[in-house]
Amino acid sequence: MRVAIVGLGLIGGSLAKDLRAKGICQEIHGVDSSQENSDKALELGLVDNVATLEDASSNCDLIILCTPVNAVVTLLPQILDNISEDQTVTDVGSTKLEIIESVKDHPNRGQYIPAHPMSGTEFSGPEAAQLDLFKNKVTVICDPDDCWKAHLDRVCDIFKALGMKITHMNASEHDLNAAYVSHLSHISSFVLASTVLDKEKKVTEIFNLAGAGFESTVRLAKSSPDMWAPIFEHNNQYIVEALASYIDHLKIFHLALTTKNYDLTKALMSQSNEIKRVLENMDKNGGSNE
Amino acid sequence: MRVAIVGLGLIGGSLAKDLRAKGICQEIHGVDSSQENSDKALELGLVDNVATLEDASSNCDLIILCTPVNAVVTLLPQILDNISEDQTVTDVGSTKLEIIESVKDHPNRGQYIPAHPMSGTEFSGPEAAQLDLFKNKVTVICDPDDCWKAHLDRVCDIFKALGMKITHMNASEHDLNAAYVSHLSHISSFVLASTVLDKEKKVTEIFNLAGAGFESTVRLAKSSPDMWAPIFEHNNQYIVEALASYIDHLKIFHLALTTKNYDLTKALMSQSNEIKRVLENMDKNGGSNE
Q1: φ, ψ for residue A15 (rounded to 5)?
Q2: Do B195 and A233 touch (CB under 8 A)?
Q3: 8 Å CB contact between B140 and B168
Q4: CA of B180: which chain A residue's CA is closest?
Q5: Are B251 and B233 part of one and the same domain?
Q6: Most buried of the four, A106, A194, B82, B204, by CB within 10 Å?
């Protein structure tokens, strides 16, 4: 199989490594708007060559879009305009509704498989690519009934070959869930980092006590703004709702503290402890990774 | 050396393991208000015996208080009332101001060394004890000028023998720093967990997409309410300030989202990315672990 990977960052690069290591494809053509990323991906041997989107996609059986989600919305209709009936397109974006909406009336819509492999790290760029990033993780395929079977099977078979479990969801359900369990985590982390960084301007030694607990909660604050701003744009409505709910919950905690109602803080924490059930289940099932 | 460990949870149990493994003490006497914890600590061989506070502390060279911080405030004056001049007391509490205040006029104040080993996990109880929990981490010693030298040296030598670096801070500075880089992280995590758990009541499958990013940001939400409520009480003023600042920063992010000002979200995230400097430094220095 010949595969075009569009967007040679962490996910695109990691897919390239796995596809090659598992012998799933013979040729990998890379596309990236950044010359630096393209050069690096070639140098690292992630791809066999770099090409224009037109050249890469005309030559390949499968085109995987690994760009930020705003670029997916721009590129996907163009790709569907030009592909032949035995070519398949998929993407790995963290949002699904707006991407699907952009091609909903396209005659080749069935050749596009909307996917979200729940795997990643806080790092970005081709150097961050790693083998087995997807192993034992979950890929969400959205609205599979709108995909043509041969193309759906091709994409599912590949994700399964990378060690992933496939789950189905409608796009709206996906975007709502992602807002709460992925996008909100990123905002809580970005903002926790900036809150303490702002305090550092006055209390220069503030980070002297920072440890593993802090590191864990701000890890995601290292994530790429170029990738995340478009996600916030696509999934605006659900993220606004999730963030408003988070702020409301924080205000209750703040009120408990200002009124020195420590029984309430204890009760609130006991409720939060219920997350053990979720995390234990994730550990049991391998969990996803993003 | 004979040591009394008061509070046989994660930290007390881990100290016991290390003190024994490194041959620092010949006898470890355990004290815990919970019969279950006492039995478990004996069964696990963490301590040689369990005793009353009176018996354990009268027999030992060093008494280490590893209870929640409210219990430290209750027990510390009683212990100082009864110790002889060659006995030393220390604690491992996450707050320092209120504990030090509770014995500031005590004639034996100099025998108490206020410490905060920055190490821990989200687990609790004697079963959670682990070897080398303190290795390469930092211990903060507060207000060392108020400690008598022989006692200060004794405690510092022990923490160093466990592989820890010693840093000094005044108690107020410690509590402020801890509010921002430790206590606030815990609140952000507790509340993130409860926000999504509340949503789960309506959207039962919400956690289907939860992955490593979510796990990282809610890990601390598993922490013990019995330990944390007293910390929130002791460090109320600084934590209220830190949490209010976090909520203010979140509101700015929320406003950027509701006004669809994605340039602003990008700028805010770029500022947050500066946390890379802090985390890289922590990695370089071994970092602390709480």
Answers
A1: -60, -45
A2: no
A3: yes
A4: A196
A5: yes
A6: A194
Query: Quick one: average pLDDT of B61-81?
Result: 97
> Who's near A262: CB < 8 A, 6+ residues apart?
A256, B229, B230, B232, B233
A217 close contact with B: CB closer than 8 A: yes
- What is the C-alpha to C-alpha distance for residues A25 and A5, in angstroms, rounded to an integer? 12
Q: Contacts of residue A225 in chain B, CB cutoff 8 Å?
A: 265-266, 269-270, 273
Cβ proximity of A12 and A5 under 8 Å: yes
Could you read off the pLDDT of A3-48 as tens digits, one per residue?
999 999 999 999 999 999 999 999 999 999 999 999 999 999 999 9
Chain A segment 53-112 residues within 8 A of B by beta carbon are none
A207 and A165 assigned to the same domain: no
Number of domains chain B is built from: 2
Please tell me the distance from the alpha carbon of residue A89 to that of residue A65, in angstroms, as a whole number: 8
Chain B, residues 260-289, CB within 8 A of chain A, namely: 260, 262, 265-266, 268-276, 278-279, 281-282, 287-289
Question: Listing from the earlier edge strand, what are the strands of the sheet with A165-169?
Answer: A49-50, A27-31, A2-6, A62-65, A88-91, A112-117, A138-142, A165-169
Rounded-to-integer distance, Cα B210 and Cα A287, Å = 7
| DSSP letter (8 states) at residue A289 | B
Is A90 within 8 Å of A154 (Cβ atoms)? Answer: no
For residue B253, the domain's CATH number is 1.10.3660.10
C-alpha gyration radius of chain B = 21
pLDDT of residue B199: 96
Q: With respect to residue B156, please indicate whether it lies within any of the assigned structural domains.
A: yes
B167, B178, B257: residue with CB nearest A232: B257
Interface residue of A166, A180, A182 to substitute, partner B, most B CBs within 10 Å: A180
pTM: 0.93
Clarify whether residues A166 and A247 are in a common domain. Answer: no
pLDDT tens by residue, A163-176: 999 999 999 999 99
Tens of pLDDT, residue by residue over A254-284, are 999 999 999 999 999 999 999 999 999 887 7
Pick from A125, A154, A173: which residue ends a domain? Answer: A173
Q: Are strands B88-91 and B27-31 parallel, antiparallel or unpaired?
A: unpaired
Interchain CB contact of B174 with A (< 8 Å)? yes
B250 with A243: Cβ contact below 8 A: yes
CA neighbor of A112 nearest in space, from A74, A158, A71, A80: A80
